[in-house]
């Protein structure tokens, strides 16, 4: 993994790590030196935990966008025992912003779909920074229909700032294709597990986000709009993105509270970008557990639960109290 790039709020963490590294480089080791290093390591853990437990929403966004944060292909290599990529949408082309294929995780065969941003400039251009065109969502839907035909569960990794907003995408029916995916995913006859691993931006994320179990990583976010976009609309300038992030309530804790997600997957201390392998272990365990819980259900039960799950999200303000009271009573 490449050297970590410090975020502004991480300066105390990097300062402590620099002190530890400097002490460890000393040629002669004494009991006093060892004790100093031990105390600094304890302070490092304490300070890191304190900082990350108190992150503001805008700081969570910076963690979700961290250049060293593991992306879809990193997880594919770390989690799946086999992966065979399937290309194309049978209509226009192969959108590399969305990857799809057949995969095996332990003894469980699945159809995998994931948004990939790319790590360096060449990769980002190839994958269009994870922003899919209509053909990408059409490719994803084809794979889901294939999964239903062969009785395979679907696993989706969500990581996008949003669907591509260019003229070509609009001409080819971007909004229509995302809407079609929402409708068809709601009734695909196979279990679907969706996980937001980084950014969950608007309809671009929702286009592969209708599932029976929806999870989010601890420092990912899932939102109807980016903070910059929201700030541009409400405050007429993206410099108010931090204010918009506070208002949007899109952090993992908020999403769980509002019933938008079913699970928050804990990240390693200091974020997933600090330990890809440990994050992959936790993510794999979550996927296997979700599939295990869905396996005994009949297709009718799966579809009924999926329908009710999304019907329960949100409510009209004027009768919210009556609905809450009725459910409680």
Automatic annotation (TrEMBL):
- The EC number on file is 2.1.3.15
**How is this protein annotated for GO cellular component?**
acetyl-CoA carboxylase complex
Q: Where in the cell is it found?
A: Cytoplasm
Q: Which SUPFAM superfamilies match?
A: ClpP/crotonase (SSF52096)
Q: Report TM segments.
A: none
One GO biological process this protein is involved in is: malonyl-CoA biosynthetic process
Q: Name one Pfam family in it.
A: ACCA
Pathway terms, separated by semicolons: Lipid metabolism; malonyl-CoA biosynthesis; malonyl-CoA from acetyl-CoA: step 1/1
Return the InterPro entries for the record.
Acetyl_CoA_COase_a_su, ClpP/crotonase-like_dom_sf, COA_CT_C
Q: Which reaction does it catalyse?
A: N(6)-carboxybiotinyl-L-lysyl-[protein] + acetyl-CoA = N(6)-biotinyl-L-lysyl-[protein] + malonyl-CoA
Q: Which GO terms describe its molecular function?
A: acetyl-CoA carboxylase activity; ATP binding; carboxyl- or carbamoyltransferase activity
The residue ranges of the CoA carboxyltransferase C-terminal domain are 29-293
Keyword annotations of the record: ATP-binding, Cytoplasm, Fatty acid biosynthesis, Fatty acid metabolism, Ligase, Lipid biosynthesis, Lipid metabolism, Nucleotide-binding, Transferase
Role, per record: Component of the acetyl coenzyme A carboxylase (ACC) complex. First, biotin carboxylase catalyzes the carboxylation of biotin on its carrier protein (BCCP) and then the CO(2) group is transferred by the carboxyltransferase to acetyl-CoA to form malonyl-CoA.
Task: Describe its assembly.
Answer: Acetyl-CoA carboxylase is a heterohexamer composed of biotin carboxyl carrier protein (AccB), biotin carboxylase (AccC) and two subunits each of ACCase subunit alpha (AccA) and ACCase subunit beta (AccD).
Spell out the family assignment given in the record's similarity comment: Belongs to the AccA family.
State the name under which the record lists this protein.
Answer: Acetyl-coenzyme A carboxylase carboxyl transferase subunit alpha
